[in-house]
């Protein structure tokens, strides 16, 4: 079984990686490394820089992830700034921003970057959903999770999905497209050359 190192402190992201990769006979090891993320508008540049910094800190091939949230009615807000927004906003703030807006669509842009010192490969996946008009569920880390329903989640907010427990979360990632699926296809083809 091949092993990849995933630089993240986020246990939910680690669960996603392990769930998808184990299905394809890839072991994922968590790499604890503190990475200062650059700020900017382009999520691809951000995730590539993050991969380079993680590789420099670990000196071994590594995968990093970064998400960017896009609310079309708010001109793409909050984009790659969700980590900062999570510190400033509560779910009610998202609801106030969306008050009176008919287009309540939201897009989660998932990005992964693999870097081994010479090969940089970026994988992306878009998950569509909507911002609902009331908060449902509980999640202290990210207030948008209580007001966001993503496609394939049967009308549940992200927070409500996680409240169902690890088994439900694992099932979610086995049946829904994810950037990790693109990674495993590429990685398996590269390691079998």
UniProtKB/TrEMBL annotation:
Statement: the UniProt record of this protein carries the keyword Hydrolase: yes
Family recorded in the similarity comment: Belongs to the HAM1 NTPase family.
InterPro entries: ITPase-like_fam, RdgB/HAM1
Protein's recorded name: Non-canonical purine NTP pyrophosphatase
Organism of origin: Sphagnum jensenii
Family annotation (Pfam families): Ham1p_like (PF01725)
Keywords of this entry: Hydrolase
């Amino acid at each position: 079984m091949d092993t990849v190192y995933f630089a993240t402190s986020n246990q939910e992201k680690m669960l996603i990686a392990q769930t998808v990769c184990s299905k394809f006979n890839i072991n994922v090891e968590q790499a604890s490394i503190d990475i200062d993320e650059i700020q900017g508008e382009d999520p691809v540049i951000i995730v590539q820089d993050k991969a380079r910094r993680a590789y420099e800190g670990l000196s071994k091939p590594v995968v990093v992830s970064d998400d960017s949230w896009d609310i079309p009615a708010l001109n793409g807000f909050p984009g790659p700034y969700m980590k900062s927004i999570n510190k400033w906003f509560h779910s009610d703030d998202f609801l106030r921003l969306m008050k009176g807006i008919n287009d309540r669509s939201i897009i989660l842009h998932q990005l992964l970057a693999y870097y081994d010192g010479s090969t940089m490969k970026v994988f992306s996946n878009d998950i569509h959903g909507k911002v609902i008009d009331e908060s449902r569920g509980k999640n202290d880390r990210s207030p948008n999770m209580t007001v966001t329903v993503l496609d394939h989640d049967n009308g549940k907010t992200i927070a409500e999905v996680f409240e169902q427990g690890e088994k439900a979360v694992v099932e979610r990632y086995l049946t829904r497209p994810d950037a990790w699926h693109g990674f495993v296809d590429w990685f398996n083809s590269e390691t079998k050359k």
